[in-house]
Each structure stands twice: as C-alpha cells, then as structure tokens.
Amino acid sequence: MNTLLRLAPGLARSRQHTAVLGTVNALGALRSFHGTPLAFRVAGIQAAELQKTLTTNPKPLIPKEELVFGHTFSDHMLTVDWSAAEGWGKPQIKPYGPLSLDPSCSVFHYAFECFEGLKAYRDESGKIRLFRPDKNMERMNSSAERLYLPQFNGEEMIECIKELLRTDKRWIPEGKGYSLYLRPTLISTENTLGVHRANKAMLYVIASPCGP
Q1: How far apart are the two ends of the chain, measured CA to CA in Å?
Q2: Which of 88, 112, 136, 180 would bridge with 188, disulfide CB 3.0–4.6 Å?
Q3: Exposure on the CB side of residue 29, measured as CA atoms within 13 A
Q4: pLDDT tier at 5 (50, 70, 90 boundaries)?
Q5: pLDDT tens track for 35-58
Q6: What is the pLDDT of the chain when averaged over all its residues?
C-alpha cells in the first residue's frame, strides 16, 4: 500500500468522542445473567481480505461553503459483519446506502451500540492525514467490551479506514478547518428479543465532509 495516509504527529490529545448508548437497566440485567464480563477475542478483521465494490453513480460534490455537518455523505461505506460462530467476516467497501435490519434486531430494543468520531484532512502539501485513529480504536474496543459486543484488531481496522479514504478522497475538502468526518459504529444485529450478549454484530464506517 502507498504511504499517502499518515498519522499527524505531535498533536494534542483530542476530546473523547465515544458515545455508549446501552441502557443501564439492560446492561445490569446482562451482567446479572452472565456473571463476570465476557472477554471477546481481539482478532479477526484482516485488511488484506478487504473487498471493494465501487458505485456506478457517483454523487456530485457540494461546494464546501454549503456543507452542513452530518448532512452530506460520501459515495462509499465500510462494513464488517461478525458472528459468534464464525468471527469477523471480510471487510467490504461498497456504495453508501441503507442497512437491512430485522425489526427484532437487538440494537433497536436494547441500544447495544457504540460509535467514535474522527477526521481526515488535507495538510498544506495536499497529503491526507488522520488525527490519532489508534486512540479512537482503543476507546471503541473499551466501549465494546462494556456492552458485550465483539472487540476487533484496531490496527487492521485503521488500514481498512485508510482504504475507504483512498476510495473517497475526492470528498475530503481542502482548506483550513475543512475535513472528512468519519463515524465508525458498532451495533448488535441479532434478531431476537431478550437481554443477552451479542451473537451477531456489524462494524461500519460512514464519511461526511464538513467545514469549520
């Protein structure tokens, strides 16, 4: 892989963006039912196995001066499915679009989900940089453990995110204060009611250009 994407060195610690949305009652029942917290194995995602399907209908770019945070999304998204039986599947970069989830999906009923927020931006020379994504992955894995969701290899996930950025690099606006906001999200996708540890999950990343 090329070295277009690099981590920005020497920057101050970012604010924590993790939002853990699991309800207190649901988690209390979960811990009571299972006793000691479940330790998911941190392994499985392999960036080398990433598969890519490009859109045949690219969206027109919006002038950066008209961008509103969280209202515009890039052409592609990154998804990785997980099951207790098979572990992490192959990462997929595919056209941005709706997720297909059953109405009984546990994320809807017990809020078993967590997310992070980070940004990719262009430096003065035009190179694409990320701001300490390793810290985002660490926090997300910590949140996943607390929610009884599967953990993952942060370094491999960062490589997948970098490939998403290469694919959608035209969506990274130039100029001071402009960036491409990335939203990694992990949700339980098991189609059952009742509070218990996740047996199926999805990790996905969407991207939204934004201004100062």
Answers
A1: 31
A2: 112
A3: 9
A4: low
A5: 334 444 445 899 999 999 999 999
A6: 85
User: Which is nearest to 116 in space by CA: 167, 186, 49?
Assistant: 186
Candidates 136, 138, 149; CA nearest to 183 is 136
Nearest C-alpha neighbor of 19 from the set 142, 119, 109: 142
What tokens appear for 109 in the block?
Answer: 């009923």
Percent of the chain with pLDDT over 70: 80
Q: Which DSSP string corresponds to 85-147?
A: TTEE---EEEE-------TTBHHHHH--EEE--EEEEE-TTS-EEES-HHHHHHHHHHHHHHT
- Residue 16 contacts residue 128 (beta carbons within 8 Å): no
How far is residue 83's CA from residue 75's CA, in Å, rounded to a whole number? Answer: 27
Handedness of CA 8, 52, 71, 63 (dihedral sign): positive
Residue 9: HSE in the Cβ half-sphere, 13 Å Cα cutoff: 0
Question: How many CB atoms neighbour CB 39 within 10 A?
Answer: 8
- Cα–Cα dist 1/3, whole Å: 7
- State yes or no: pLDDT of 188 exceeds 60: yes
Q: What is the pLDDT of residues 113-148, one digit of tens each?
A: 999 999 999 998 889 999 899 999 999 999 999 999
